[in-house]
Amino acid sequence: MEEIQRIIERHRYIGRLGTAIVYAVLVATAVNLFWTPGHIYSSGITGLAQLISTLTLHAPVHLGTGLMLFVINSPLFIVAWFKISHRFAFFTLTAVGLSSIMIHLFHPVAITNDPLICSIFGAVLNGCGTGLCLRYGISTGGLDIIGILMQRKTTMKMGTINVAFNIFIVMAAGFVFGWPNALDTTIGLVINARMIDLIYTRQQLRQVMIVTDKPDEVAKEIQHHLRRGITVVRNAEGVYRHSHENILFTVVTVYELYALRDAIGKSDPHAFVSMTEATAVVGNFYEPKR
Predict the structure, then answer these.
(1) Is the pLDDT of residue 127 over 70?
(2) Which residues form the DUF2179 domain (predicted)?
């Protein structure tokens, strides 16, 4: 059993490494083929690295985007190593390091200079890469690390940190390239966030109601597949047939829906299942460790 667990863990590490490589290629393509030619900024630390690169373009020493991306993240790697987890810090370093190298090696190529087109396509590529990283348990550095630490120490939410930082990026784009470019940057930030939400489904919650006459079997099968709590309401009466049924309530992520459906199908194929979006949960909701 321990040997099987080691094999599974090894495959997870290989999968995460592959995801880090895919992310690096996507973000380097977004920066060098779209954002840089179109004078568009990314969100977060990547946007800050672009800003520094732009401001030092005609300085005696030009600080490239790839170099600054790694330099700004470097103190955060150390903090993540000691304050979050060694695995989290290692894969964050891998993803950011590879993307910094590829941004540096891939020279900007102007497919088009239209700011809106560059903003949209750059955001789609970067959003896909970031969403894949988050989905497979990899951080892309920067605000991810800051957000985790801030949530532990204060009541400030990650969304607040992102919004504040991105307002700064948009304002910088306006002052450096003009306000039309700032508006195009804003469009890119919105598309980037939307792409992340489409791919990173672990943060999207669903409240599930299951009506079944086999509550113990269904609950056991669900908990065999998922680490989720379940509340059972027994002897509920159905109005149509006046029969007594049992209702199970649970909350899962969208990422877990396939496993949930599989568990219900195995334990009670005739169960009635209803799902609604859960905008928030308060209390003990398990989240996998990073």
Answers:
(1) yes
(2) 228-283
CA-to-CA separations, 82 to 69, 86, 89, 149, in angstroms, rounded: 21, 7, 9, 11
Please name the helix (run of DSSP H) or strand (run of DSSP E) that holds residue 250, with its range, or none: strand 244-253
Q: What is the identity of the amino acid at 196?
A: I
- Concatenating the DSSP letter of every residue in 122-190 gives HHHHHHHHHHHHHHTT---STHHHHHHHHHHHSS--HHHHHHHHHHHHHHHHHHHH-HHHHHHHHHHHH
Q: What is the pLDDT of residues 62-117, one digit of tens each?
A: 889 999 999 999 988 898 888 888 888 888 899 999 999 999 888 878 788 899 99
Q: State which amino acid sits at residue 200.
A: Y
Buried b (16+ CB within 10 A) or exposed e, 52-65: bbbeeeeeeeebbb
Both tokens assigned to 167: 């307002």
What is the structure's pLDDT at 29?
A: 94
CA distance 33 to 35: 7
Two tokens, residue 157? 């939410």
249 pairs with which residues across the strands? 209, 231
In one-letter notation, the amino acid at residue 221 is: E
**Which tokens sit at 257?**
């829906």
